[in-house]
Design brief:
Methane Monooxygenase Hydroxylase, Chain G, domain 1, 43% helix, Heat Shock Protein 90, 5-stranded antiparallel sheet, 359 residues, 9 helices, binds adenosine-5'-diphosphate
Length: 359
């Protein structure tokens, strides 16, 4: 075929394209329609040391154990004629293994047939290393917190039991100041025990558990209500609920979420107004959306995100008892189960805690 001389406009366009590629820290590539051949490679060659067309690119650049999932992602993009996007490992020019984020788009002809693919790959090795180091550090920290809170439970319980026992046994023989001190000690030990138990529950919620079965949300709610029956009675509260769906979450975790949200609804009630709590849910697009609504004191707008943080409380322990762990525990459980949790509220009228869980 006779070579057609390039016009000035095409040359300028080609120059601009090269300038873009060289200015970027990415590699730009061109693939055959079925990706069997890498037709060209431009840019900073962190991945490859050639611009030559190469048929064996997958063997050359992708680790054997990663090839099936890289090929599967490519196949999916070819079948759906849609954008290919993947983070995967690559063998770099210097022989070391790195990470890349690769994104390619299909170029189709007038009949919609793929003619070629154009893509760009960034070197994300440093980011991946930092992420892995962070993950390891977090896991170590979680293990540490789990082990310490677990081991602290028993001594805290012993201190509470013995200080209670001392206060009762020697109530008659101790002077007022000694008795007050002992009661203070018992109170502190009891708060410490609650705090340790709550922290232990928080660390436990971070440990991964594979969910293989669905859980009846109604059964979890009934357990939570049973566990809270003393508070419901004491506050003259009412807890009602609509039919609830089955969801993909561990039973004990959903019970903890309900128990914390309803427990809070009973605790943060308006003075002289018996708490009324209603739990409802609807399922949409494979996700169950739960609402726990109360008629309590409500939460000011600027604190609606803040309250989900660890140890974040809006009141001193004098006004309402608590450790500030309940809502952060709920958030942790829900997020570990691929859901979200948030609150809407009107100060003085009540709050509606929303959370989602896959069905
Ligand atoms: P705790 O109840 O132990 O303080 P939580 O993490 O459960 O800790 O809640 C954090 C804070 O959010 C509470 O201290 C309270 O100020 C606020 N809060 C939680 N639930 C409600 C509610 N239903 N109504 C009003 N305020 C609430």
């Amino acid at each position: 075929m006779k070579e057609v001389p390039l016009s000035g406009e095409i040359i300028r366009s080609e120059e601009r394209f090269r300038a873009f590629v060289l200015a970027s820290s990415d590699v730009v590539y061109q693939m055959s329609p079925d990706w069997s051949e890498m037709r060209h490679l431009w840019g900073k060659y962190f991945i490859a040391d050639t611009t030559e067309a190469t048929k064996g690119w997958i063997e050359k650049y992708i680790l054997p154990e990663d090839r099936p999932f890289v090929m599967a992602a490519i196949q999916r993009a070819i079948e759906t004629k849609s954008v290919f996007e993947l983070e995967h490992r690559v063998i770099r020019v210097d022989g070391t293994v790195g990470w890349t984020f690769s994104r390619a788009i299909p170029i189709c002809d007038a009949n919609g047939e793929i003619q070629e693919w154009f893509g760009a790959a960034s070197d994300i090795t440093e980011r991946k290393r930092a992420e892995e180091a962070l993950l390891r550090a977090n896991q170590d920290l979680e293990e540490f917190a789990y082990a310490t809170t677990h081991d602290l439970q028993e001594p805290a319980r012993t201190i509470r039991l013995f200080s209670d026992w001392l206060a009762k046994k020697y109530a008659a023989s101790l002077d007022g100041q000694a008795l007050d001190t002992l009661q203070l000690l018992a109170g502190c030990a009891s708060r410490m025990e609650t705090l340790i138990q709550d922290l232990f529950a928080y660390t436990q919620a971070g440990r991964s558990t594979r969910v293989t079965q669905r859980t009846e949300a109604t059964a979890c709610l009934k357990t939570a209500i049973r566990n809270l029956s003393a508070s419901i009675k004491e506050t003259e509260g009412t807890v009602t609920f609509d039919p609830l769906p089955s969801v993909k979450i561990q039973r004990t975790r959903l019970e903890q979420v309900f128990q914390n949200l309803i427990g809070n609804a009973l605790k943060y009630r308006r003075p002289q107004v018996p708490p009324v709590v209603h739990v409802s849910a609807r399922v949409e697009d494979g996700v169950a959306h739960f609402i726990v609504a109360d008629n309590g004191i409500g939460i000011e707008e600027q604190y609606r995100e803040h309250i989900f943080g660890l140890f974040k409380r809006l009141h001193g322990s004098g006004a309402y008892s608590g450790t500030g762990i309940g809502l952060s525990l709920c958030r942790r459980i829900i997020e570990r189960n691929h859901g979200q949790i948030w609150v809407e509220s009107k100060v003085g009228e009540g709050s509606r805690f929303h959370f989602t869980v896959p069905v």
